[in-house]
Amino acid sequence: MITIYNFSEGQEDVFCISIGEQEKTNLLVDGGNGNIDFITKMEEFGIEELHYVLLTHIDQDHIKGLIKLFKNKENYEGITVIYNKFINGVISYNQAKQFEELTERFHNIVSYREYQDSEGSIIFLSIGEREKREKEEGKIYITFLSPNKEKVQKLYEYYDYYKSRNKPKAGNGKIVNQSSIIFILEYNNYVVLMTGDGYIEDIIEDIKDLSDDKKTNNPIEKFDIIKIPHHGSEDNNKQLDELLKRLPCDKFIITNKFKDFKQGDVRIKKELIDVLNGKKVYSSSYEGEYKDKEILTVIKENTIRL
């Protein structure tokens, strides 16, 4: 069983994924913008222990709540933190630096390594390792799809610029989003795609290889659920229709308030509505129909069981 708890309140990401039967493995994915007491929420749902924390990337609506978590809690000595180290001989901007200092005592896993050092109950894999490995029943696998070393290097170069000039570089938003960790979570026959603020177009070729029975011992045939990238942003979701032609999926999670779209927030464009129309789309902060030529029906639910 996989249960996804979506604690996001609008345009931010906070997820706790609980995996297993009797003994659960709990993975926290991002921490939102710091306004949510998600630890109390997890305790209300009976989640008393965290085993892994994964930060997809350094935007405020993903990192800020995790900084708050690690500042206020001292009892996570056995935890594993998954993130792409931000400091490569340079000092990053304040929140990224804070996060790195607060988590340096934990075991760290970096997503873009060719060979992963697994820790605890989750087996972490690169795409190449996933293609060769025979899956075992009852094991939990996370395969990192993006970013690659080239995208991470661009982030480091951006920080060099930031440090020397003390101001953002033009186009830095895409550089930060392209450094977002995109991963596949597999447990028994369940397959979950978590995308952060990444780009669907960046993973099309990797997914193609993992779904080809000539290239992998255990081809992926479908996704049970996909977290829509970047709150439904048009740029981040190009080629979602192509992805679904390769690997079908009928359940999606989106983090946005919807009602604020026409006031300047991220907008779902007609093309994305067409792709999602008729499928189950879950949000923790909105329920109803978003209308634009086609109708997208959204289910308000922060507990999704697969």
Overall description:
There is one protein chain. With 306 residues, this protein is α/β, with parallel strands linked by helices. The chain has a single domain, classed as 4-Layer Sandwich (Metallo-beta-lactamase, Chain A), CATH 3.60.15. The chain contains 9 helices and 16 strands. The strands form 2 sheets. A 9-stranded mixed sheet has the order 7-8-9-10-11-12-13-15-14. Strands 6-5-4-3-2-1-16 form a 7-stranded mixed sheet, with no helix packed on it. Helix 2 runs parallel beside helix 3 and helix 5 packs antiparallel against helix 6. The chain starts with a strand and ends with a strand. About 4% of the residues have low confidence.
Would you summarize the structure shown here?
The chain has a single domain, classed as 4-Layer Sandwich (Metallo-beta-lactamase, Chain A). Helices cover 26% and strands 23% of the residues.
Question: Characteristics of this structure?
Answer:
306 residues, 7-stranded mixed beta sheet, 9 helices, alpha/beta, globular, Metallo-beta-lactamase, Chain A, 9-stranded mixed beta sheet
What fraction of residues sit in β-strands? 15-25%
* Amount of helix: 25-40%
Total of domains: 1
Shape: globular
The pLDDT mean sits at: 82
- Coarse structural class: alpha/beta
Number of strands: 16
- What is the CATH third-level topology name? Metallo-beta-lactamase, Chain A
CATH architecture: 4-Layer Sandwich
Superfamily (CATH H level) name: Ribonuclease Z/Hydroxyacylglutathione hydrolase-like
Strand order of the largest sheet: 7-8-9-10-11-12-13-15-14
H and E order: EEEHEHEHEEHEHHEEHEHEHEEEE
Q: Radius of gyration in whole Å, from Cα?
A: 18 Å
CATH class: Alpha Beta
For the sheet with most strands, the description reads:
9 strands, mixed
Alpha-carbon distance between the two ends:
6 Å
- Poorly predicted sequence stretches spanning 5 or more consecutive residues: 88-92, 260-266
